[in-house]
Amino acid sequence: MLAGKVALVTGSTSGIGLEVIRALAGAGANVAMHGLGDPVKLTDMCHKIASDAGVKAIYAPADLKKPAEIRSMVKHTADTFGSKLDILVNNAGIQFVSPVADFPEDKWDDVIAVCLSSAFHTSMLRLSVIDYTLLITVCSSVFSRIW
């Protein structure tokens, strides 16, 4: 169904993102995995996904708090798969739980950068790769006390 398509999924080394990568690869898409962890182990995971699904899979690392690294990740994905990016899934997220009065500013900035700004940057960059991309942004919220 997705044979020949290219998908980039942020936050795809575990959980929902990993299952999305597996499903896209299972449907025939070539995939770029992004997330935190040991690059050797994650590259091995990509090889297994590629082998199991009969597609190409790469590990595309980036610190999503840094727009320059996001640009490099998108460029690496497009360059690897022939200047193509058909599907973008913004799935990466981090959290920090603390009462608001004690919430460290640097942690707030990190959460906003990864959960919000990175989705903006990847979504804008996809336009430089292809005119139309299926774009999915996964959002979640955490209930936290403010007292």
From TrEMBL:
This is 3-oxoacyl-[acyl-carrier-protein] reductase. Pathway: Lipid metabolism; fatty acid biosynthesis. Belongs to the short-chain dehydrogenases/reductases (SDR) family. Its EC number is 1.1.1.100. It is an enzyme of class 1 (oxidoreductase). InterPro entries: NAD(P)-bd_dom_sf, SDR, SDR_fam. It comes from Chlamydomonas eustigma. Pfam families: adh_short (PF00106). It catalyses: a (3R)-hydroxyacyl-[ACP] + NADP(+) = a 3-oxoacyl-[ACP] + NADPH + H(+). GO terms for molecular function: 3-oxoacyl-[acyl-carrier-protein] reductase (NADPH) activity.
